[in-house]
Amino acid sequence: MCEANVDELLPMVDRAVGLLTDARKSLAHHNSVAELVEAGHAARTRYDSFSRPEIVTVFVGAENWREELAAAGRAGGVIRSALPILGSPQ
User: Could you say which of 20, 41, 68, 85 would form a disulfide bridge with 61 (CB–CB 3.0 to 4.6 Å)?
Assistant: First the structure.
């Protein structure tokens, strides 16, 4: 998954390294990472407030299940459960 998305992943890795470097500097100079924690909390709050479609249950192997998952992913869907079709080998 990572290798297939290298162009999108590298800038995010660089950003994470930058945030950790800034947090280390803040901790070393101010004995605090409060700024990082507050920014993280604010980001999580924003993320939780986004509306997104939800697929409650998907039966893996059912007709068009792959297409349903792909469409939900493109729409930002949250998958809560993926179950095998009843009677199928697990």
Answer: 85
